[in-house]
Amino acid sequence: MRNPWEVNPLLSQDHLVELAKFITDIRGEVVDLYDPNGVGDTKRGLGLRVYECIRNRLIREAYSKRKPWLGIVNPEGRFTFSINGVPVRFYRGEPETPEERRFIASPAALQQQSLLPLSESDAAILWFFVMEADSEDYADKVTFCGFDAETREQVSNWEIPLTGTVASKPASVGEKVEPVAKPEVKVKLKAKSADQRKNA
C-alpha cells in the first residue's frame, strides 16, 4: 500500500505529523476535563466535545495563517479542512473500516478535489485522520488513510509516529512529573439573575 505522499505529493509527511500532534493534543486537553462523577459527563458528550473542539481549533488555526498550507473547505456539516488544497476529514474509529457515512463528501470537497493537479483517480481519494483511543480515552494512535471514493477500497494507510506527543496523559503513581508552564486563564463570573438578587 502506498504512503499518502506517494499518492499525492501535496500531502507532505511533515504536515501530516504536525496536524496529528495538533489534534491529539486537543483531544488530550478535552479528556483532561472529562468529569462523569462531578458534572455528569457522558462518553457521548465527550465525543461531541472532542469533535467540536478539534473542528473549532482547526478553523482558528487555518484563519490565523500560521500554517499557510492549512485551509478550510467546509466549516459546517461534513466538516472538511485541507492540506495544500487536498480535502481531509477526521474521525475516531477503525482506520480500515470507516462507517458508511464517512464516504459522503461535502459538495465543497468534491469541487476542491476536481481542482487538484492529479490524475482523476488520485484526485478522487477521500483522506482521513483516524484517531484510536486507549482505555482512558486519550489518543494513542493516529492513522492517515485514503479511500477510493467510488470503490471505497483503502489505497493508503500510514500510522503517524506520535512518540512523546500524547498530551496531558496523567502520570502513573510514583512517576516523576515535570511542571508545564500554562498561560494564565481569565475567569469571568456570571452576573446574578433578577431572582438571585432578590433572594440575596
Summarize the structure.
This protein has 200 residues and is an alpha+beta fold.
Outline the fold blueprint.
Layout: H1 4-7, H2 13-33, H3 43-64, E1 70-74, E2 80-83, E3 86-92, H4 107-114, H5 120-123, E4 125-133, E5 139-148, E6 154-160, H6 194-199
Description:
By secondary structure, this protein is of the alpha+beta class. The chain is built from six helices and six strands; from the N terminus they run αααβββααβββα. The protein has helices at residues 4-7, 13-33, 43-64, 107-114, 120-123, 194-199; strands at 70-74, 80-83, 86-92, 125-133, 139-148, 154-160. A six-stranded mixed β-sheet has the order 1-2-3-4-5-6, with helices on both faces.
Considering the chains and any ligands shown, give keywords for the structure.
200 residues, alpha+beta, 6-stranded mixed β-sheet, 6 strands, globular
